[in-house]
Design brief:
Leucine-rich repeat, LRR (right-handed beta-alpha superhelix); 45 strands
Length: 668
């Protein structure tokens, strides 16, 4: 029993020693406290920085402190800094780092307190409640960073807040700042306060600093109490926040909105006030809930990445004075209509890439705006009408990237680019319409079959429609120019008897890959085409042929892909001779057009094929007595054998006519 009573006495004694009240003189607190394990301390009298140094270094168990009856006097020591290399400690100020990392749960400040120093309560992860007294005018950088404050209601006397002052608070829900004089919310002030959801700012808050509310993912309400004087919102101020309802129309004094200010936030709309002078790069970048953005009417630029990845659908530039649209400005947005003002002079790289819902597009700019690279990457431009000024129709139609749209003006009626048969859609039926025109089976839709607007109906128009249907973003503009090609079509001469057939191979030697080809074959009297067959090299290509006029046949090959390889037989033609064929004639293969998948058109040179007939002389012998090697040419003048012995010059050659040593030789 005595042991139990003794233990209780010790416990009571220890408990009593944990709470202590002292009257202090400056620098004397350490001499007044014998037991540093106290948990509660009340100080009256006067204190200075030395007393706070003692609390910081020695009172590790302290959880509650009441300084309401004390006053803080100044102290200086230029030889031995106490906190953070500071040597001067003003009166009525809690020194820097005074309670840094302490287990403090309750704090009552002196009545006359004016300032709280840098990181004074930083890391106090059990400090939930804190009363900011009237008269407090300054809270330094990181003063409460990492604490557990659940609400902040700053007094009207507050004038200065330091960087990161309330950052990384994991328990904060509400903030009210309503100063009586102008106040700037500093850089990173509430950064990563992930539980704060309600902020109210008074009319004298003039700016929100860089990253001030960055990462405040539950910040759903941001209110102004009455009128406000916000002039500046800094970089990343609300980046990745949960903010939904920042009232830009109420913020009618705003002049500058800096880079990434609302990027990745939950803001749903933004109408810039007339006072706005600049909106920075990526200000609403991937703010995925943003459905409407209205720049001020006199705005002259849309910054790089401004609305990339948002849900904006409204006609942003209509009625503005925009001259410049930056890189990725509208990237991947669901904008359905866009009207560029007559002031527009430049649109940057990929500015409208991925704007796949665009349906109505107009440019009032008489001078075609200059473009960066791939402005409309991924957009099916060929199906989108673009209205331009009457006098600028030709300029837009021939301009790089612009020409891919279905361009029209008041004197150039609107239609659907690629809708050859005028049924309101672009389908494979339009390919068939062109196909029938080229093969001479139809003259219907001649006015619309020149899809690419190059002045003629060719296989390149078929390729254009393929590209429309496949959504190929690399389709060049209309009114494209063709160019002479180094690619060659090759067919060797041959002999044929009346009543017989002969199959001629047609070889293509090409550098580029082709998706379509057409050519015309003019046959001599008595010689007709019986059939045309593609080879394995063109197995992926559809082919057609027809006699488009007496003695003239057209062959077309086309595909959504390309030919196989760059060398070899492409197709062969089976021909039949009748009794009217006299021999020593020429087949001409002309109008040879080959089209790359990008619709680039190659004009390949004509080919003449010499055709002979057999005579009463069954064999033509080479004079084996002629000495020396010879060269062998086909009837196109192409060297096929060089410096061979005369008696072996034609061995193994296919039937045809050759020039051997300057003499014409027929090989049967």
């Amino acid at each position: 029993m005595k042991k139990i009573l003794l233990s209780l006495a010790l416990i009571i004694s220890a408990t009593a020693s944990w709470a202590l009240e002292v009257e202090c003189t400056p620098g004397n607190l350490a001499n007044l406290i014998d037991d540093t394990n106290i948990t509660s301390l009340t100080v009256t009298g006067q204190m200075d920085a030395r007393d706070f140094r003692f609390i910081y270094t020695d009172l590790d168990a302290l959880t509650a402190i009441d300084l309401s009856g004390a006053s803080i006097v100044s102290y200086s020591n230029h030889t031995k800094p106490l906190f953070n290399n500071e040597v001067d400690y003003p009166e009525n100020c809690i020194p820097a780092m005074a309670f840094f990392g302490k287990k403090i749960t309750e704090v009552t400040l002196p009545v006359g307190i004016r300032a709280i120093g840098m990181a004074a309560f930083a890391g106090c992860d059990q400090l939930v409640n804190f009363t900011f007294p009237e008269g407090l005018d300054s809270i330094a950088a990181y003063a409460f960073s990492g604490s557990k404050l659940n609400k902040i209601n700053l007094p009207a006397s507050i004038k200065v807040l330091g960087k990161g002052v309330f950052s990384n608070l994991t328990n904060l829900t509400r903030v009210t700042i309503n100063p009586s004089a102008e106040l700037a919310i500093p850089e990173s002030a509430f950064e990563f306060d992930k539980t704060v959801n309600y902020v109210t700012l008074g009319p004298n808050v003039i700016s929100v600093g860089d990253r001030a509310f960055k990462g405040t993912t539950r910040l759903f309400h941001f209110n102004f109490s009455g009128e406000n004087n916000i002039r500046h919102i800094g970089k990343e101020a609300f980046l990745a926040s949960g903010l939904t309802d920042f009232n830009f129309e109420q913020a009618n004094t705003l002049t500058n909105l800096d880079e990434w200010a609302f990027a990745q936030s939950k803001q749903v709309s933004a109408t810039m006030p007339a006072s706005t002078a600049s909106v920075g790069k990526g200000a609403f970048y991937y703010a995925t809930d943003l459905t409407s953005y209205v720049p001020k009417a006199t705005n002259d630029s849309i910054a790089d990445l401004l609305l990339a990845g948002t849900a904006v659908t409204n006609n942003i530039t209509d009625g503005t004075k925009v001259t410049y649209i930056g890189k990725y400005a509208f990237y991947n947005t669901p904008i359905t209509a866009l009207t560029l003002p007559n002031t527009t002079s430049y649109i940057g790289d990929l500015a409208m890439a991925g704007v796949i819902d665009l349906q109505e597009f107009a440019s009032d700019a008489v001078d075609v705006p200059q473009l960066g690279e791939n402005v409309w990457l991924g957009v099916k431009q060929a199906t989108i009408p673009l209205k331009v000024p009457q006098d600028s129709y030709e300029a837009y139609s021939t301009a790089d990237q612009w020409g891919r749209f279905l361009i029209w003006s008041d004197d150039e009626p609107q239609g659907i680019f690629g809708d050859v048969n005028q049924d309101g859609y672009v389908t494979s039926a339009d390919i068939t319409a062109i196909y029938n025109i080229l093969l001479g089976n139809s003259t219907q839709y001649m006015e619309t079959a020149d899809v690419n607007g190059d002045g003629s109906i060719t296989a390149s128009d078929i390729t254009t429609i393929y590209n429309i249907l496949l959504g190929n973003e690399n389709v060049p503009g209309r009114n494209k120019k063709t160019f002479d090609s180094n690619d060659m079509l090759i067919a060797d001469g041959f002999v044929i008897e009346a009543g017989k057939t002969y199959t001629m191979d047609v070889e293509l030697r090409n550098n580029a890959q082709f998706a379509a080809m057409q050519l015309d074959i003019t046959m001599p009297q008595g010689l007709t085409i019986d059939n045309v067959n593609s080879t394995s090299r063109a197995s992926n290509m559809a082919m057609g042929f027809n006699e488009i006029e007496p003695g003239k046949w057209r062959i077309i090959l086309h595909s959504a892909t390309t030919t196989n390889g760059n060398k070899g037989t492409l197709f062969n033609i089976t021909m039949k001779a009748d009794e009217n064929f006299t021999g020593n004639e020429t087949i001409t293969i002309g109008n040879i057009i080959a089209v790359e998948p990008t619709e680039l058109v190659h004009e390949i040179g004509d080919v003449d094929v010499e055709v002979g007939t057999t005579t009463g002389v069954k064999d033509i012998n080479i004079d084996n007595n002629d000495n020396g090697p010879v060269n062998v040419y086909n009837m196109n003048g192409q060297l096929i054998r060089q410096n061979v012995e005369r008696n072996e010059a034609t061995t193994g050659l296919p039937s045809g006519i050759y020039i051997v040593g300057g003499k014409k030789v027929i090989v049967k």
